Amino acid sequence: MCPEETEVGHEVIEPETHDDADSTLSSDMQSSTASLTASIIEYRTIHGRTFHSQRGPGDAEYWAPNDNQHNTSMDIQHHVWTLLLDGELYLAPLPDEAGKVLDIGTGTGIWAIDFADEHPEAVVVGVDLSPTQPEWVPPNCKFEIDDVSLDWTWHSDEFDFVHLRTMFGSFTDWQHIFNEAYRVCKPGGYVEDFEASADLISDDGTVTRENGTALGQWGKLFHEAGWKTGRSMAVFEEDTQVKCMKAAGFVDIVVKDIKCPLGQWPKDPKQKEIGSYDQLAVEEGLEGYVIYMFNNILGWSMDEVQVYLAKAHKNDDEPAKSPIHKRVLEIPGEMAELVMAPG
């Protein structure tokens, strides 16, 4: 097994100097597909926001809403992630003929649709708990409703590329996810996971877990909620993906650690663009992110939730020029080639 190669993006992004007071944030073996019925569209409604149905045999539970407002935030965030990868949808060294591709946790389906457009020769399958994907899609793209916390129903060695993105807080058993990804991936194929840290931090120390600011407390509160649900939000910090990939049998694991600015503070035009879109995505999705986790899991009253949201939105307790960022990990791992030795 090859050791993983780590590419770390710890450079300091230089903030733009300004005097504005603009806000930084304005059966025994249950089968997944076969087990799901029309009850999947019986969404839960929590304080006016809809969340995926829990009427199924698995333990899948996603903490963010599936309504139009949150889906808009997810599509903007997709643009952010793509900008971070210099316009690319993935980093794995795929061949020109991409083959068959599986997108786990496809959400609105935007990554799968973009990949299908970029690779018209490929067959792309997107899977999610919620049927929130569009009806009009490229002919080489389709979507399935599935619970990947159960045993996967796809055949072994079926896919050339398996893609996951921002699934932190989703699973109680990450090893199961990567074991199944290994099983359905063809020898020589790739599995790639893109995960973000829940922590928002700043290079100048003005935003930290310890200083009591709304954004500084963001990660701390999400980690606490993740521990209570048994679905860790700390997969970035705990190196979960690399550990599980190794245990599943993947080789040539590459880790790319990237800073993602939040807000319009960077001086560099590209970083400013990324931060601006990231700010827009967070502002659009902020309420959806916190309602379930803070109210249902941490036991906050809705009044307390609204106070927190007001602080985060107005940014009363952080200076506008704070170089706030989060970190993401892009981890492509190669499926080991299976070679039969002569008997």
From TrEMBL:
Gene3D superfamilies cross-referenced by the UniProt entry: Vaccinia Virus protein VP39 (3.40.50.150)
Entry's family note: Belongs to the methyltransferase superfamily. LaeA methyltransferase family.
Protein name: Uncharacterized protein
Residues covered by region (Disordered): 1-27
GO molecular function, one term: methyltransferase activity
UniProt xrefs under Pfam families: Methyltransf_23
Residue spans of biased composition, Basic and acidic residues class: 7-21
InterPro entries (alphabetical): SAM-dependent_MTases_sf
Highest taxon, organism lineage: Eukaryota
Taxonomic path: Eukaryota, Fungi, Dikarya, Ascomycota, Pezizomycotina
